[in-house]
User: Which sequence fits this backbone?
């Protein structure tokens, strides 16, 4: 384990422990709800990042995995079976789907944009499939039966605390997997394919294996998160769980935070989930509907134009410039500096290979 | 006309052209020779603005043009001939030439220019409607030169025009170049074929590993043993 | 049999307009490599502008073309110059993501300005029908088709016979050579993006009297555009137009013969099926 990886792992572990206590401090409040959703998005963005930021594939297909996760638990719950089993099924389905899509992409050597567009088509197809099955609740969605009892085995949880901890666990898992991948050979292979597929394969890296592996891992994590999100919401609305809109948001959060890093997408989620909430609720009365979406879109555009490498990269540069500044998780940010910096450069250079 | 002073071109840490100076006066036919990877192409690309220079200056008729983009330099009269296959493959010969002559807004003048090109390369006249991608190598080279001529250059830059061409075609093209030169067009010719280059040019530069190692009149260079040595990378 | 002809006619009419929309995206892609996820949203914007012109001034929708078209042309140039061109040297996916940001911004702006209800633009032609041998053809889609056809042909002519058109093809086929010949790549790219949006605006104005729309309608059209582009071969303009017709027909077939969301899926499924056999699109890698 390199020093950078060690410090970041420790940082993650510390953060996990610290965050675990938060619900005890703030109780079951609206804030807790926001935090849960932030954590779920951190997990989703980090999971997506494995394919998007690390392997460089702009994949919209993740809405399929989210839907698989959400609907599996929903269906299982409605059938009286344990939703945990549903999650297992969801992971299996998602990984299978993901491997298929990745294989198609590698087999036909699809250029980045074609791959993106095709996965977008799959995503839309997924929504239509889901909406057309009465069995899945059709366009009005499916609700998860609520007995009012606590039954962990049946994933019936009344306490938001537990939902929080599940979300935290999954977020940490996503980030952890991301960390491990980043610093190990597999992750380096991912990034070499992202930078220059032809060069990578000349060096013996198999783009097929990279695409399939990254997609599988990403799909599995995403499915878990989809399931957790559904169980938390208690209601599965296809226009949320199966639509391209959600995955677009995930992609944008990741881009804003900085796609070329482990922590960037998480940062994006941490910033933008509460921001859109805030805009919608606090100003809900004074601002007409739609304002928060505009704000949000404009913000994304500005970040992409002005902050090369995303906000995380921006922050890193500021930190590097003001060496004396001490950040609460300073050790991990600073020692990760060089690795992350070189990757940001790699990301920029990749742009030359259009 | 063209004054290049201490021009350096580098890719990252690799210096391809090292503080090179050269001059081309009006109507001159100058050759730039050297072995493979000596930096000839890079130098020519830097002159036409396609590749940026790290340091040094380019002056054209007294004006400093070092940072100007190729599009501007073309308007000034410095035109580089694209390598033979670098045409627009799915457009006809005529259309290719029209793109080359874009800068000439006056339609009748443009047609005149095209006629001139056809006079220089009569073979093209028979193939005006043919798709450029289907022409033979030699014909493509002619189109490439023709396109450059459509922009009414004062200085024509050629990078290895003889590459991949049958000898009789090469002779043909070079004869034409000589004619154009005699009519006042300055030419900077990059060529690996030493004999060819020095036969047609009046002056030459020898470049080796990014440095100009020799310069002089072509006659002198032709009989200079050091040229061969430099070529072989022996000096 | 009559129904089949009816469906085919409907499909072709709609497909013609789809083709024009996709053509707008195709030329932009061929010249600058940009894939604009907000493509459909710009079209919806044009539809809303048409609505406004009608509500405020009583403009017959088709006349709005004269205003909305040029307006979108200049908007396109501005968008490309200020938002997209600065990203030219960065990863191509970043441009895609920026356009995703535009999607959100645009939807929000439309929502703010017009509210979320579904809109229609009334037109004098709305109730006019033609009956040709038992096949009913509504006037509005026919007009849309004719307008699209005119513009597609006009575009073709421009591409073949004007300096600008040749520059566009030159930049597409060999940008390096074009730059060397003094073609102003940047200008070509600005103009082409503007033109792309203008084409989409024309399609939007033409379609407005025939389909309902709301702020979020754009993404659907964008997706359809991309499918058409890939089917026709990225950058192959003629292929794109033909693919547009095919998808139009597939959409009509799906709508009429298969009910519900599965019907909507038909074009998508067709798309996936074709891709499995011809991954480079029906018309392959052309220029």
Assistant:
């Amino acid at each position: 384990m390199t020093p950078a990886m060690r410090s970041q792992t420790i940082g993650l572990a510390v953060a996990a422990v610290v965050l675990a206590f938060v619900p005890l401090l703030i109780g079951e409040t609206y804030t807790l709800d926001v935090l849960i959703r932030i954590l779920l998005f951190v997990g989703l963005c980090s999971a997506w990042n494995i394919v998007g930021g690390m392997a460089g594939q702009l994949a919209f297909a993740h809405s399929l995995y989210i839907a698989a996760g959400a609907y599996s638990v929903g269906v299982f719950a409605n059938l009286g079976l344990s939703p945990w089993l549903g999650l297992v099924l969801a992971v299996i389905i998602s990984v299978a789907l993901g491997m298929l899509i990745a294989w198609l992409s590698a087999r036909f050597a699809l250029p980045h944009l074609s791959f993106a567009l095709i996965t977008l088509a799959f995503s839309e197809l997924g929504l239509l499939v889901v909406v057309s099955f009465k069995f899945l609740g059709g366009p009005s969605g499916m609700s998860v039966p609520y007995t009012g009892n606590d039954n962990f085995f049946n994933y019936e949880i009344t306490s938001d605390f537990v939902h929080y901890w599940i979300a935290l666990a999954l977020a940490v898992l996503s980030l952890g997997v991301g960390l491990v991948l980043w610093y190990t050979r597999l992750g380096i292979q991912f990034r070499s394919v992202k930078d220059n597929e032809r060069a990578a394969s000349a060096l013996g890296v198999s783009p097929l294996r990279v695409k399939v592996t990254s997609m599988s891992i990403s799909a599995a994590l995403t499915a878990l998160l989809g399931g957790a999100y559904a169980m938390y919401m208690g209601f599965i609305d296809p226009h949320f769980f199966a639509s391209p809109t959600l995955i677009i948001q995930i992609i944008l959060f990741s881009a804003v935070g900085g796609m070329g890093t482990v922590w960037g997408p998480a940062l994006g989620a941490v910033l933008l989930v509460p921001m859109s909430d805030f805009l919608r609720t606090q100003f809900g009365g004074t601002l007409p509907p739609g304002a928060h979406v505009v704000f949000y879109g404009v913000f994304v555009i500005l970040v992409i134009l002005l902050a090369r490498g995303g906000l995380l990269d921006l922050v890193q540069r500021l930190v590097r410039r003001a060496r004396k500044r001490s950040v609460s998780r300073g050790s991990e940010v600073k020692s990760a500096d060089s690795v992350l910096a070189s990757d940001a450069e790699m990301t920029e250079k990749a742009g030359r290979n259009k | 006309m063209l004054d290049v002073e201490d021009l350096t071109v580098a890719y990252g840490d690799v210096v391809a052209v090292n503080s090179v100076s050269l001059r081309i006066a009006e109507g001159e036919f100058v050759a730039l020779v050297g072995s493979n990877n000596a930096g000839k192409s890079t130098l020519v690309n830097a002159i036409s603005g396609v590749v940026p220079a790290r340091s040094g200056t380019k002056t054209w008729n007294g004006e400093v043009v070092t940072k100007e983009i190729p599009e501007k330099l073309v308007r000034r009269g410095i035109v580089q001939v694209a390598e033979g296959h670098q045409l627009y493959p799915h457009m006809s010969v005529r259309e290719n030439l029209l793109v080359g002559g874009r800068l000439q807004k006056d339609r009748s003048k443009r047609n005149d220019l095209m006629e001139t090109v056809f006079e220089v390369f009569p073979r093209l006249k028979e193939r005006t409607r043919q798709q450029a991608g289907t022409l033979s190598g030699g014909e493509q080279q002619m189109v490439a030169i023709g396109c450059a001529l459509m922009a009414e250059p004062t200085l024509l830059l050629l990078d290895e025009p003889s590459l991949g061409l049958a000898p009789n075609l090469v002779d043909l093209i070079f004869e034409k170049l000589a004619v154009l030169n005699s009519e006042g067009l300055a030419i900077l010719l990059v060529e690996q074929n030493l004999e060819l280059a020095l036969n047609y040019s009046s002056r030459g530069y020898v470049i080796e590993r990014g440095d100009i190692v020799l310069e002089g009149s072509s006659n002198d260079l032709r009989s200079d043993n050091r040229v061969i040595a430099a070529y072989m990378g022996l000096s | 049999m009559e129904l089949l002809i009816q469906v085919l006619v409907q499909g072709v009419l709609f497909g013609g307009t789809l083709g024009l929309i996709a053509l707008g995206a195709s030329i932009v892609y061929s010249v600058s490599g940009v894939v604009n996820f907000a493509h459909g949203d710009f079209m919806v914007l044009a539809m809303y502008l048409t609505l406004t012109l009608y509500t405020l001034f009583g403009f017959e929708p088709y006349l709005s073309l004269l205003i909305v078209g040029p307006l979108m042309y200049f908007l396109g140039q501005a968008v490309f110059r200020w938002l997209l061109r600065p990203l030219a040297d960065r990863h191509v996916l970043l441009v895609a993501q920026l356009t995703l940001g535009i999607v959100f911004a645009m939807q929000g702006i439309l929502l703010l300005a017009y509210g979320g209800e579904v809109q229609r633009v009334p037109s004098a032609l709305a109730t006019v029908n033609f009956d040709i041998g038992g096949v009913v053809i509504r006037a509005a889609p026919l007009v849309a088709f004719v307008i699209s056809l005119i513009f597609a042909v006009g575009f073709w002519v421009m591409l073949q016979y004007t300096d600008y058109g040749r520059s566009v093809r030159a930049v597409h086929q060999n940008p390096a050579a074009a730059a060397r010949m003094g073609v102003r790549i940047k200008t070509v790219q600005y103009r082409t993006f503007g033109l792309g949006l203008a084409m989409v605006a024309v399609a939007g104005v033409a379609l407005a009297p025939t389909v309902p729309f709301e702020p979020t309608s754009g993404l659907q059209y964008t997706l359809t555009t991309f499918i058409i582009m890939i089917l026709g071969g990225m950058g192959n303009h003629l292929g794109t137009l033909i693919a547009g017709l095919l998808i139009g027909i597939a959409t009509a077939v799906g709508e009429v013969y298969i009910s519900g969301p599965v019907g909507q899926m038909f074009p998508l499924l067709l798309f996936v099926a074709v891709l499995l056999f011809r991954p480079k699109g029906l018309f392959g890698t052309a220029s």
In short: Chain A touches chain C through 50 residues (CB under 8 Å).
